[in-house]
Design a protein that fits this description.
This protein has helices at 4-36, 45-58, 63-88, 108-114, 119-136, and strands at 40-43, 91-94. α2 packs across α5 (119-136). The protein contains 5 helices and 2 strands; from the N terminus they run αβααβαα. By secondary structure, the chain is mainly alpha-helical. The protein has a two-stranded parallel sheet.
């Protein structure tokens, strides 16, 4: 006979799965109504953070300077996200968290530009870091 906690876990999982199946059509309907009005957009927050990390790492800053720059970036990021949502009249979602039946507008490049970052500069910074590491070996 199975222990009680395994049986209860199985029952709970089954109940959650059934709830998700029953709620999915309603959630999708609300999402579709909301997103069809252009009120939702996405951005790749990981890309933005990685671009900033590459810029900081390539800059060769000291620890104290890195901390100040990290705080500055966090504040700028927060302010730019608020401004972007106001400008576009939309709710920005992290793209990796969105599963949608259609494509939503992507504001990643706009956010990068507002923060004086870019995908191309990120690649250059990563190459510089890689060259530095190889030279130190």
């Amino acid at each position: 006979m199975k222990p009680v906690h395994i049986i209860l876990s199985s029952v709970l999982c089954a109940a959650l799965a059934a709830s998700a199946v029953l709620a999915a059509p309603t959630a999708l309907e609300h999402f579709s109504k909301f997103s069809s009005k252009g009120k939702l957009a996405v951005l790749n927050l990981n890309e933005v953070v990685e671009a900033n990390e590459a810029a900081l790492a390539a800059g060769g800053l000291r620890d104290e300077e890195l901390m100040l720059e990290a705080k500055r970036f966090a504040l700028n990021l927060q302010n730019e996200l608020k401004a972007m949502q106001k400008d576009c009249g939309c709710t920005l979602l992290v793209s990796s968290a969105v599963i949608a039946p259609h494509t939503l507008p992507d504001y990643t490049d706009e956010l990068l530009a507002r923060l004086n970052l870019s995908r191309a500069q990120k690649q250059k910074d990563l190459r510089r870091i890689s060259e530095r590491v190889r030279g130190a070996s």
